[in-house]
Every structure is written in structure tokens, then in C-alpha cells.
Design a protein that fits this description.
6-stranded antiparallel sheet, about 425 residues, 23 strands, alpha+beta, globular, single chain
């Protein structure tokens, strides 16, 4: 439909074979790759148009069903568009909006941390550059070799706060022009002029809020050394060259067979990250193993490193959802936002205690300034002459970081209600009959 609020999951198109994707009348499930019948399941639905509004907001939850032991994972939420009148039509097999439409943006909602838990999402898609009648499509996908569930999904076109405030002031002016005459109209115009100045003082800080990308450094590095009488070393790395999405996996493997000594080691590091002006999503993992028979050394190491610096020119509200995990010795993972002017941590989630997962779900206000968003997963696993360490180790980080200018729409609405109260009082005073002396 073309309304500003769209029902979702009423007629969702299902693509993929058995266990690929489904809609059971209550929730949507998406499977991707082995062990889910080897399919690449995904769901999409046309959700109407943006009605000329600048933002379409999508809310819902990614959850781990209480009757499924392993069916959970990160959920990708994306929006695509097509021009009005485009001939694209649905088909259950071999037809995907991702292959036809233009991507507006996509976000990764993190994996729920435990069975029967949820990860809520509230995502803003910028459609201000599109025609008011552009066709919009919502698409869900799961990470490779995982399964994700989506529920309580809603889509709404959101008017710009400035449009609400200024349009209301303009409407008051038109009403006044038709209702009042003479001195009363002159007085009312003076009051409305004051109200308009107040409206611009509320709107301008929001409308002019700017996020500027500073620098980025994202890389994956691995190394492996096997020395049991015959040294062999293997190293590999990859890094992001620009702000484009970075999706990379590197591996190193080393083996030394010098009978009766034997050593093997490997390291694997991956990262999937996307940086946008209003949101940052990233996942990084590292794994390492080492084994040794006899004397010598076996070392496997891996690093997934994320760093993004940005500047804001006014106050912004931030939210962050994420988690870090470590298993095995000499592993580390963390997520942190640093105020580069005060050189102080805004929030931080560090290495979990023991071999466990630690979650973060927080929000707050950032003042104008420069900030550095950092995440790291680092693993080193080694054997020295028969050391009795676990055979594998690893670490992981994942997060979704979003920014929205302050004041938020609710703040503007509350301010405007107060402004109307001031206006009503001024009208009462200015239009009241004058007493005769």
C-alpha cells in the first residue's frame, strides 16, 4: 500500500528450498547454507512507498527460538528501491529483489546470546533522494551457515521534524489571515513572527547536524609457525583500502614433519564490516590451533582489527548493541568508543572473564567533537615442547552502532506543544478587549 505505515509479513515472499526460508504466520525464519539443505534462503516483501518523507524506519527483533537448539545467528536487514512503473514481479524461485533493485542501505543485527533471547533493532533508511512514488522493498538474510528469525517487524515513513514544526507554523498563519482583520491581525502577525523564530531555533540545530567520516583502518592478519626440527612459517593479511564494505577471510597453515617430531599450526581471521554516516556494523572472528609431538615450537595466531574515526558538529544520540567472546587461552576481544578531544572512553566492553560471552546494550549523548570507534579480536595459540594447552582458541566481536541528531523527534514535538501553549496565551492577551478608562 502507499500509506505511511506498512504491515509487514502479511504476504511475505518465500525464496529457497526446504529450510531455506519460511513464514509460518507468526515469525519469519531464514537459513543460509549448510546444514540448512545447502540453500541460500532469504525473504523480501514490497512495503509501499516513502510518501515523499526523508526516512523510512524499520523496527523488530532478531531472536533465538526456545524450541530450536542451534537455529540462530546475525540477521541482515536491507532495503531496495525501484522506480514507479518498473516491471519487476515476485516469483518464488529464481527472482530476488537484490538482483534487480538498487540497495538503499543494509544493517547487520547481532546474534542473540542465549536461547529464547532477542536482539531488538530500530533502523533508519534514508530515502530523501528518491521520488515520492519509488517502490520500496524490505529484505532479510542470514549469515552464511546460520539461521535467523525475525519478528515484530514494522515499517514506517518518518517526516522530518523540521517539516512538522514549520508546516504547523505556516498553517497557523493561514488561519490567522482568514480569521482576523485590522489591528488584531497586525498583533497576531507579530506573535506569529516570534513563534516562527522560535521554531527555526528548534529546527536548525537538527536540520544542520552533520557527521563527517575521518579515517578508517580495518584489517585481518594471520600467522603460523611449525618448528619440529624443520622450520616452516606462513603469514597472510588483508586490509580495507576505503570506506567501502570490507568482507575478508585470511588463513595461515604451517606443518613440519621431521620424524619422530611433528608440529602443525594454523590461524584464521575474518571481518565483515560496513561504515555509513548514521550506522556502523561489524563482525570480526579469530581462530588458532597448534599441536606438537616431541620437541620444538608450534604457534598459530590471528588478528581482526577495526578502527573508525568520525566528527560530529552538534550533539548526537548514539546506541550500541553488541557482544564479545573468547574461548581458549591468550585470546582477547573488545569494543570501545573514545572521545579524541577528552581522550576518555565513552563506553567499553573488554575481555570476558573466563571463556564466555559479554554483551553490550547502551546508549547516550555525544557532544560535538571527534570520536574513535575501535574493535579487536586477537588470538595466539602455541605449544612449546609438549605444553598441555587446549588445541584451539578463538575470539570474536560483533556490534551495531547508530547515530541520530539531537533533539530527537519526540523532543521537537514536546517543544512544539509548549510553543503552542505560549502562542495561545499571547493570543488571549493580544486579542482581549481593551478596558475603557
Amino acid at each position: 500500500n502507499n500509506d505511511s505505515v506498512f504491515p509487514v509479513f502479511s504476504d511475505f515472499l518465500i525464496i529457497g528450498a526446504t529450510h531455506g526460508a519460511y513464514w509460518d504466520g507468526q515469525t519469519a525464519g531464514i537459513g543460509n547454507g549448510t546444514p540448512y539443505s545447502g540453500t541460500n534462503g532469504h525473504l523480501y516483501q514490497e512495503v509501499g512507498t516513502g510518501d515523499g518523507q526523508p526516512t523510512v524506519r524499520v523496527t523488530g527483533v532478531n531472536f533465538w527460538r526456545n524450541d530450536s537448539s542451534n537455529q540462530h545467528g546475525p540477521l541482515t536487514v536491507a532495503m531496495y528501491w525501484l522506480p514507479s512503473g518498473h516491471g519487476f514481479s515476485f516469483a518464488e524461485v529464481g527472482n530476488d529483489i537484490a538482483g534487480v533493485g538498487t540497495l538503499i542501505n543494509s544493517f547487520v543485527v547481532s546474534d542473540p546470546v542465549s536461547q529464547n533471547s532477542v536482539v531488538p533493532f530500530n533502523l533508519a533508511f534514508d530515502v530523501s533522494s528518491l521520488a515520492a512514488n519509488a517502490r520500496l522493498f524490505l529484505r532479510f538474510d542470514a549469515a552464511p551457515t546460520t539461521f535467523a528469525y525475525a519478528d515484530n517487524v514494522a515499517v514506517q515513513a518518518v517526516p522530518e521534524p523540521s517539516a512538522l514544526v514549520l508546516a504547523s507554523v505556516a498553517l497557523l498563519g493561514l488561519v490567522a489571515q482568514k480569521t482576523f482583520r485590522g489591528r488584531k491581525l497586525k498583533r497576531l502577525r507579530q506573535v506569529l513572527a516570534a513563534v516562527l523564530v522560535l521554531a527555526f531555533s528548534i529546527v536548525a540545530p537538527v536540520h544542520g547536524a552533520v557527521v563527517t567520516m575521518g579515517s578508517q583502518s580495518r584489517s585481518v592478519v594471520t600467522g603460523a609457525t611449525a618448528d619440529a626440527g624443520a622450520l616452516f612459517t606462513d603469514d597472510d593479511m588483508d586490509s580495507a583500502a576505503s570506506f567501502d564494505p570490507f568482507n575478508s577471510t585470511v588463513m595461515s597453515t604451517a606443518t613440519s614433519d621431521n620424524n619422530p617430531n611433528f608440529a602443525t599450526a594454523d590461524g584464521e581471521a575474518l571481518q565483515d564490516s560496513a561504515i555509513e554516516l548514521s550506522s556502523v556494523a561489524a563482525t570480526g572472528e579469530t581462530h588458532a590451533s597448534a599441536s606438537l609431538a616431541g620437541t620444538g615450537t608450534a604457534i598459530g595466531e590471528a588478528l581482526s582489527d577495526f578502527s573508525y574515526t568520525f566528527t560530529i558538529d552538534s550533539q548526537f544520540h548514539f546506541t550500541v548493541l553488541g557482544a564479545v567472546e573468547r574461548f581458549g587461552p591468550v585470546s582477547d576481544a573488545g569494543i570501545e568508543l573514545v572521545d579524541m578531544i577528552a581522550m576518555a572512553s565513552v563506553f567499553a566492553i573488554g575481555e570476558p572473564v573466563g571463556y564466555a560471552t559479554t554483551s553490550i546494550d547502551t546508549n547516550g549523548i555525544l557532544d560535538a567533537g571527534t570520536y574513535n570507534l575501535i574493535a579487536i579480536a586477537d588470538t595466539l595459540h602455541q605449544h612449546f615442547g609438549g605444553a598441555n594447552d587446549p588445541t584451539t582458541a578463538g575470539a570474536e566481536f560483533e556490534f551495531l552502532f547508530t547515530l541520530a541528531p539531537v533533539p530527537e523527534p519526540s523532543t521537537v514535538v514536546h517543544s512544539f506543544v509548549g510553543m503552542l501553549g505560549v502562542l495561545a496565551y499571547c493570543l488571549r492577551v493580544s486579542l482581549a478587549p481593551r478596558r475603557q478608562s
